[in-house]
Amino acid sequence: VGSGSAVSLSRQVQGTGGSSAVSKCSAAARGYFQDRFLRLLAGRRRRRAPLIHRGYYIRARAVDHCVQDFLLKTQSLPRTQILSLGAGFDSLYFRLKDMGLLHHTVVYEVDFPNVACQKATLIKGMKELSALVGDTGEEGLGAITFSGEDYKLLGVDLSELSELERILEEAGLNNEIPTLFIAEVVLTYMENPRSDALIQWAAEHFPQACFLLYEQVHPEDPFGQVMQQHFRQLNTALHSLAQYPDCEAQQRRFLGKGWTECSVMDMNEFFTCCIPEDEQQRMQTLEPFDEYEEWHLKCSHYFVLAASKGMEPSWTPLLPSMTVPRHAGPVGMAGSVPAAVCARLSGIPGLRRYGHHSVLIKPNVILTTGGFGEEDGQHCRMRNFQVLSKQAGYWEAVCVTHNIPDKRWGERLYHTVSCLSDTLALVVGGRTSPSSAGLAMLWLKFPKTCDASGPDDVAVELVSLEAASEAALLRWRHSTTEITFKGEQYLFVYGGRSALEPVLGDWYFLHTPELSYTAIAVEGPVPESRHSHSACSWKGGVLIAGGLGAAEQPLGSVFLLREFGRGFQWQTIETHPPLVPRYSHTAHVHEGKLLLVGGVWFHASSVPGVTVIDLMTGLCLDYVINVEHLEWPLMLHNHSSIFLPNEKELLVIGGGGNCFSFGTHLNPEPVSLSLSSILISH
């Protein structure tokens, strides 16, 4: 690499540091963590989205957890030191000093020379910062841009190991005392031989040391591909991922380079195991939030690792060994399901959306409404309805005109649509923004005369119910299922969430078509509250599977609500092996088998494909989706799916979401999954 391109590359990497300082600052300003120094160091102030706040919250918690643990376990020792690699504009030293945690610890920070100079200038120019360091008044010498008694700021390129070693020695770093190395999304920007050499150098030169690493993982799944693409576009490729694609590979890396202990966990595991429940709840209620899928996917693509060597046994590890069963154990796959794009449905923007709902309004005619997606080249909440109809074996798309009396009723996400006849459907719930109340019910009326290609216009009317009844149904991420009781048709509205309740566990029976509330007795074990679950009609009752429960944890339970005596009864369906907990999937029933499609789970080693549960025996089999014929990442959450039993074909429409700070991914076109090989009729 010529020096010119090396300089431009270092500038790009520095850009990621500046951007992360601004994000941390925004999260601190919203109360995610306490840090009064960030705003002094970050420079620019920008308010970030709640999803970004959560991402930087979990990162800050993971680093703090390990740093404070190191300081606590070594507090009786005369001297210790912390070496922060690629520290950027981080405020770690100032926070620790302010909390009185640095009585016998010196903090060394290393970054590119121009970053270190900028930071030194900032510190000298700000009383609040310089007073804490107790500036010795020495001018920064060469690479040592700032030197206080317990704080040294060094400008040196980390990939130049011999130069780094020389300057650290000059600054007074002592190889003989316990040392904590911190690398927070730093090593991955270096070529692997150089980052490996740095890890090995630290182990070889420091007899008593700990190493804290926080960075990305799982490059090959759909979210990982979007993440990699983002960093490539910034010209800051993530080098570690190809060689060290998962937590186990990173663990082997450290153990093979001279470290004797090494524990590692992804951020879903860290959040569940290392953050107390009351603190989890405090964080979850700081801002209106409804991007659970992206939050959990972000957390499964970052890990924290703590390695150590030569430390007293009582001092290690900085991270607990996994006390809960590891999420990451591979899910055994029974086979695969081929995915193919639909020949005539490419390039239709109205089909690129998520959080929408699709329903079969008559054989071979599918209506898709709502969601967030692409309209006129812009990302927005979708107002257009889209109809797909199958003609001579091919799906064709038609955009439908509809007269929404008020635009507020039209733009909704996470609603349900139930077809009551071939001319009438009911829309229940949904939301505009997560801070607003849910939306009122709508009738969708199709003309009687509509031909095989489906309606060319849809009349939309508000449903008039008493205010109290209406209020009960203001929810989203719920389910609405057709059931039969004593020969009469009802809609069963269950679960979801609302602006006030993060998760609901109640239900309502609506007698159709006049939508009167009916009280029907229900016995048996009540399912735990959930949203983003699946619900299917079966034998006059309803099957509920998975979902996201209280405390934002995925559920693996399956329940059947069936007619029993003078009412209904909940029954648990035991699955074996147990169903891997998931949410944001879709579901269908075919010949006594429950099919679950996609969703989000915490098993980082793979993404959910199609799961088949035999409702007679409880046998539960997972199938991976073979995407080799797709040219783009298939994100199977916030999608909709329609099952065509005669063809044993699943049509997946839309799906995707806002991938943390890496951009919004919308599946560009519908995908057909052929299930004939896994649904062999007996």
TrEMBL record:
Pathway: tRNA modification; wybutosine-tRNA(Phe) biosynthesis. Belongs to the methyltransferase superfamily. LCMT family. Keywords: Methyltransferase, S-adenosyl-L-methionine, Transferase, tRNA processing. It comes from Zosterops hypoxanthus. It catalyses: 7-[(3S)-3-amino-3-carboxypropyl]wyosine(37) in tRNA(Phe) + S-adenosyl-L-methionine = 7-[(3S)-(3-amino-3-methoxycarbonyl)propyl]wyosine(37) in tRNA(Phe) + S-adenosyl-L-homocysteine; 7-[(3S)-(3-amino-3-methoxycarbonyl)propyl]wyosine(37) in tRNA(Phe) + S-adenosyl-L-methionine + CO2 = wybutosine(37) in tRNA(Phe) + S-adenosyl-L-homocysteine + 2 H(+). One of its GO terms (biological process) is tRNA methylation. InterPro entries: Kelch-typ_b-propeller, Ppm1/Ppm2/Tcmp, SAM-dependent_MTases_sf. The keyword Transferase applies. This is tRNA wybutosine-synthesizing protein 4. GO terms for molecular function: tRNA methyltransferase activity. It is an enzyme of class 2 (transferase). The keyword ATP-binding does not apply. Its EC number is 2.1.1.290, 2.3.1.231. Probable S-adenosyl-L-methionine-dependent methyltransferase that acts as a component of the wybutosine biosynthesis pathway. Wybutosine is a hyper modified guanosine with a tricyclic base found at the 3'-position adjacent to the anticodon of eukaryotic phenylalanine tRNA. May methylate the carboxyl group of leucine residues to form alpha-leucine ester residues. Interacts with RNF144B/IBRDC2. It comes from the Eukaryota.
